[in-house]
Amino acid sequence: MRHIIDAHLDLAWNALSFNRDLTLEIEKIRRREEQMRDHRSRGNCTVSLPEMEKAGVAVCVATLLARGGPNQTQRQAYSRTDLDYANQEIAYAAAQGQLAYYRILESRGLLSMIRSAGELDDHWRDYEGKGRLLGIILSMEGCDPILSPSQAESWWNDGLRAAGLTHYGEGHYGFGTGTTGPLKQRGLELLKEFERLGIALDVTHLSDEGLEEALDVFQGPVLASHHNCRTLTPHQRQLTDEQIKKLIARDAVIGVALDAWMLVAGWQKGKSDPATLEMERVADHIDRVCQLAGDARHSAIGSDLDGGFGKEQTPGELDTIADLQRLAPILGERGFSDSEIDAVFHGNWLRFFGSVLP
Q: Which residue from 328, 312, 230 is spatially nearest to 279, judged by alpha carbons?
């Protein structure tokens, strides 16, 4: 079994908003949700801490995820699983609650928050020595919970080491998936703080204009934690070949996401059959990045599993996160060497964060 670094898992959002006890075995969580109908993914979750151990996930980039954008719409109801809060202050409080969840798991000895390159080295050495404790690097998916650029340092002190300015829609710092527009002035100011503090910029979910501008003005480290290829799956959510080349030039790493609609064109949420989608399609996106780079140094895993969907919206061969291991023989059949497969599974993220963390 190969060790894995997964660059995007919404663990705390799953726990707090879906009321999932991630310390349980997957089947126990699924049974608890069998009668729930508030979300399409109920009873289909793929991620829990025991399952991550089975998967060989040594480290993941664990998110804080809450939106409080400027254009909130009137609603007739509100679901606990919704991401949108009425304002930034409530989004901040929600993200702090998610941070508290990680701290509680850490206090129980169920994970270890990695804040420095030295801690990453120590954790990796222990994991290879059969320590099997999950390490997490803290990231923020959409920066609405950062109340102002000056507050970024407080989040840094809390352990934040990577962040994406936007998520879906318009945020307070820029425009995200499904929108068009450049970075806002507050976004430019926040990027200056990221540079000063050493927070890596995750370009995932930026609008095309925002991504272009961010790469021009931000001189710190950049990554695309969970981003697929637009040439293979035409949609603004994915990266164009030109964007991938620019990221490669910045020595970025791009994590492949396993959300079905991001893997193949024409997937219809709630209608398409997972059995028709093979893990080969995941390898297609990995291979595409490697072909554009001319090597296997820039493609990796950012699965986004249980990021608002479950096994009803993943390749049919994937029942849980442990099935990420199925990618290894597929890549091998495509001519990837053992060392290249290890690079995709963990080596590229290990190199990236080893150089980015303080």
A: 328
Quick check: 355 and 253 in contact, CB under 8 A? no
Which two three-digit tokens encode residue 236?
């603004």
Name the H helices within the chain: 11-17, 26-32, 49-55, 88-107, 117-128, 152-157, 185-197, 208-217, 241-249, 260-263, 280-293, 327-333, 338-342, 348-356
**Are 271 and 2 spatial neighbours (Cβ–Cβ below 8 Å)?**
no
Instruction: Indicate the SS3 state at residue 289.
Output: helix
Whether residue 241 has pLDDT greater than 80: yes
Q: Is the pTM of this model over 0.85?
A: yes
The mean predicted confidence, pLDDT, of the chain is 97
Q: Which residues contact 215 (CB under 8 A, 6 or more apart)?
A: 203, 222, 246, 247, 250
CA distance linking residue 43 with residue 310, whole number of Å: 8
- Burial of residue 46 (CB within 10 Å: 0-12, 13-18, 19+) is buried
Structure tokens at 325: 């291991």
SS3 268: coil
Query: How do residues 245-284 score in pLDDT, each as one tens digit?
Result: 999 999 999 999 999 999 999 999 999 999 999 999 999 9
CB-count exposure of residue 49 (10 Å: 0-12, 13-18, 19+): middle
CA nearest to 8, candidates 297, 291, 295, 205: 205
